[in-house]
Structure formats: structure tokens, C-alpha cells
Amino acid sequence: MKQHLIFDLDGTLIDSAPSILHCFGLAFSTTNTPLAAPLTHDVIGPPLMETLKRLSGSEDAILLNTLAAAFKQHYDSTGCLQSVVFDGVPAMLQQLQAQGYQLYIATNKRFYPTERIMAHLGWQAFFTGVYALDYFNPPLKSKAEMIGRVVADNGLAVDDCLYIGDRLEDGMSADANQMDFALVSWGYAGDVGMRKPHWHSCAKVQDLAGLISTL
Questions:
Q1: 0.85 cut: is pTM over it?
Q2: Which superfamily is assigned to 4-15+84-213 in CATH?
Q3: Among 32, 97, 172, 173, which is most exposed with the fewest C-beta within 10 angstroms?
């Protein structure tokens, strides 16, 4: 039986796409920077600077830092609080906690807006730990590395853990740590077609607890 459940955030527990895309749009318009790629759902998920390189088509550090500052100004103040919780998620988290599972967040989203979202939703009590790449000093370079640190820093056994996310990167990050993975498809679900045969999958929020109980 899995005892420790590590969740991705965007596209897994919350739909943050509209607010993130709106804030990216504002960052580019207010800095008069042309977009080199469309603002579509598939830009949600990677770390901020990686996404800004893609959207701007540039590696210029000054431009990227200017865009990042503009995005943070919009997103960290009000944008992050406009995230929408997927239907059934609060009840699911409550059920899993009541059943004795330890819950964690491991997200590519920066720690500051993640913490604001947790407080805004009143979710702090659900999670034993909330982790982001920049939670660590120096910041970690990948989600795979972050999952490894969550396991190591909390003294967890990998066999007792399950990572739950909505993207191919999430599954590959779990694989890098030899951790079981469940791909959920109620969010953005862009990577479902590339699901690995050994991954678990779940299409409905209300079915996740039942899947977890079989592992």
C-alpha cells in the first residue's frame, strides 16, 4: 500500500491556465515584446524561465528577466488567486487524508505563488509538505531532482510513494526516481497519448482514491 502521495499542482489539482496565460499576455504587452509562440495550454507546466524562452524565442538574459519581473508582478499579486479548483478535488484530498495518507505537493510553479494559493484555498492542513524548485537553495534544476529531495528530506521509502501528475514530464520525473506514477487526464491531458505502459492512469477525480487503494 502506498502511504505517501506526491501531487503535481497545475493541471492536477487546480486549473491555473486562464490566469497564467492572461499574465503571460500582460507581461509581453506591457514590455512591448512580440510573442514567438501562441499562448496555449501546452505552455503551462514548465519552469517560468523555460516558458519565457519559448514564448519570446529569445535567450537574452536581460529580456527574459524583464519579462519574468512583469509576469511575477501580475501573477503574484492577483493572478495566482484566480486559479480554479477542479471539481471534486477538495473532497478527494479530505478523503485521502482521512484514510491516513501523507500528502505532498511537488510543483514547477514558484514557491511564493504556490504558498499563496495554498493559503487562499485553505489547503495547508491537507499537505505534510509543499515543494517547488525554488524552495531549495540553490534552486533545483528539474522536477525529477525535486521529487528525489522530497523523498530524501522526509526519509521516505520510494516503494511507499506515488507521484500524481498530468504531464509526460511528471511521469518521466517519477521514473527517474523509480517511483510509481499515476497520470491524470481531467486537467490539460495533452500527454495522455504518450503514456508509458507501466504508468497508472485516472480520468476522473472521484476515481483516484479507489485507484490508489489498489496499489
A1: yes
A2: HAD superfamily/HAD-like (3.40.50.1000)
A3: 32
